[in-house]
């Protein structure tokens, strides 16, 4: 159960951070004429990310409790393996989200390039 919750919370944090970064980039592009809806979206995502950070802190406390319980039943080697698994799982989730973001960015670039080429062909 803990590992499932870990996946959900880490994914939530990464997703919110990514969405918040996109809104911040959009706000920088618009600059002084920032749309009110972008400001509202930024504020909402900021609050949601803070809530997700609180969830992560609670999950970290829960992980310490789970490790304490497991230490009574597992050998030192098994407990180390479990802790390593949790660390690797988190790292892989972060890497997966990063790769998904890169793919999405490249797909958007490709779509924009295809539109530019199409527009160029029509104008020639």
UniProtKB/TrEMBL annotation:
Subcellular location: Cytoplasm, Cytoskeleton
InterPro entries reported in the protein's UniProt record: ASD2_dom, Shroom_fam
One GO CC annotation: adherens junction
Lipid metabolism among keywords: no
Keyword list, A-Z: Coiled coil, Cytoplasm, Cytoskeleton
Pfam family, one: ASD2
Entry's Gene Ontology molecular function annotations: actin filament binding
Top-rank taxon, per record: Eukaryota
PROSITE patterns: ASD2
Domain ASD2: 1-118
Keyword Transmembrane recorded: no
A single BP term in Gene Ontology: actin filament organization
Chief location bin: cytoplasm
Coiled-coil ranges per UniProt: 20-65, 89-123
Family: Belongs to the shroom family.
Protein name per the record: ASD2 domain-containing protein
Organism: Gopherus agassizii
């Amino acid at each position: 159960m803990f590992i499932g919750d870990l996946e959900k919370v880490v994914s939530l944090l990464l997703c919110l951070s990514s969405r918040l970064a996109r809104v911040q980039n959009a706000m920088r592009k618009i600059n002084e004429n920032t749309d009110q809806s972008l400001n509202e979206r930024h504020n909402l995502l900021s609050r949601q990310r803070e809530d997700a950070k609180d969830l992560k802190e609670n999950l970290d406390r829960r992980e310490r409790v789970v490790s304490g319980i497991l230490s009574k039943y597992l050998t030192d080697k098994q407990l180390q393996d479990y802790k390593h698994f949790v660390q690797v799982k988190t790292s892989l989730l972060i890497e997966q989200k990063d790769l998904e973001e890169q793919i999405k960015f490249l797909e958007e670039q490709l779509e924009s390039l295809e539109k530019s080429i199409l527009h160029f062909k029509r104008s020639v």
